[in-house]
Design a protein that fits this description.
- Helix content is about 20%, strand content about 25%.
- The strands form three sheets. It has a nine-stranded mixed sheet, with helices on one face.
- The protein is built from nine helices and 19 strands.
- The chain has a single domain, classed as 4-Layer Sandwich (Metallo-beta-lactamase, Chain A), CATH 3.60.15.10.
- The longest helix has 12 residues.
- α2 links the parallel β5 and β6.
- It is α/β, with parallel strands linked by helices.
């Protein structure tokens, strides 16, 4: 038996899914590329699937979108654009169907080396809430899985991807090396809290602060408003960021101004759908952020109307029939980056922060 065939026989087939067991960890197949971090904000119609590809060719995907195959196909298309034939790391931020639902579909299409999640159970047991987790569990049971703690990192060569929220726990000390981390947050002075979030899975969210050279991006998935508050009040433990991936698709149960204003992103990216997220109140909060240059959206928000949506060039998808377009970011170690709209080809360059 040759080596390639032997490798194939060690891959578990679970309903057609390719899941690499803990004992088998081949190196990523993508070639070494230019010295840029490539990021794809993939359209999952209001869920999340964000792909990171390091200069080494190593990859990390945050969430897998919905079940049904559509979102898995879109993820694979983005992978092919980067020459990827497998995924090194898949972070399942929490067990709602718009984040974990596509995991089994994706594993049926490409090998996955390693998963990260908040544990072997879901805290929402209602039949209509646990379907995504149930489908994921068939893969999880035979995969290599890590349940990270706050402060742990995803081993992505050249990239620091650190968990700042995990399984209900939050960062308690200033993020090491983060610009502005630990300083008093004046936006806490008039800050308000909300009634505790009624969907406990959101409170389990795995959130990442990602650093590549001088560039920093924050992705807290569906973290709740009150948890956002805890991260930055009375002191901003996170510091400042170049890019903010908006929380909870732009829903008003997240998006605390005291956090968004404190982290001072230059650019925000919203993973909303046409009729999911993209709330005018959230949109206005982001637009009012001190120093914000641009606000990119995966969809034009129907609720936002004319006044509370970004210009057409910054919208990946705009109509009922216009779907599946993504936003592609290329990041350099000096902190400069570009963002491209796959629908229009429009591309904008952002110089390194001074």
């Amino acid at each position: 038996m040759n080596g390639a065939l032997a490798c194939r026989t060690l891959i578990f087939l679970i309903g057609g899914a390719l899941v690499l067991p803990a004992a088998l960890h081949p190196q990523a197949q993508a070639p070494v590329r230019a010295e840029t971090l490539e990021i794809y904000f993939i359209d999952t119609e209001g869920g999340q699937a964000t792909l990171f590809v390091a200069p080494s060719g190593s990859s990390m995907l945050m969430d897998t979108g919905y079940a049904g195959g559509r979102d898995a196909e879109r993820i694979v298309a983005a992978m092919k654009e980067q020459g990827l034939t497998m995924l090194d790391h898949v972070v399942i931020t929490h067990y709602h169907g718009d984040h974990v639902g596509g995991a089994a579909d994706l594993a049926a299409k490409v090998p996955i080396r390693h998963f990260y999640d908040h544990g072997p159970y879901t805290v929402e047991l209602q039949p209509n809430r646990r379907a995504g987790f149930v489908s994921y569990k068939t893969i999880r049971d035979l995969a290599h899985v890590t349940v990270p703690r706050v402060g742990d990192t995803v081993p992505l060569p050249g990239v620091d991807a650190q968990f700042v929220t995990a399984s209900g726990a939050l960062l308690e000390n200033s993020l090491s090396g983060a610009p502005g981390a630990g300083g008093a947050n004046t936006f806490c002075r008039d800050a308000k809290l909300k009634v505790p979030d009624p969907t406990p899975e959101n409170q389990e969210t795995l959130g990442l602060a990602i650093r590549f050279g001088q560039f920093r991006l924050l992705n807290l998935a569906d973290l709740t408003w009150n948890q956002e508050h805890q991260l930055v009040c009375p002191n901003n433990l996170l510091g400042t960021f170049d890019v903010f991936h908006t929380t909870r698709h732009g829903d008003t149960n997240s998006g605390a101004p005291q956090m968004i204003y404190a982290i001072r992103p230059r650019v925000a990216v919203m993973n909303n759908g046409q009729r999911k997220g993209g709330a005018p109140e959230y949109w206005k909060t982001v637009r009012a952020t001190p120093g914000l240059e641009d606000f990119w959206q995966l969809h034009r928000s129907e609720a936002g109307g004319t006044e509370n949506n970004s210009p057409d060039s910054f919208l990946a998808n705009v109509t009922e029939t216009d779907h599946g377009h993504y936003l592609h970011m290329s990041v350099r170690t000096d902190g400069s980056f570009s963002i491209r709209n796959s629908r229009t080809g429009f591309k904008k360059e952002y110089a390194a922060r001074r």
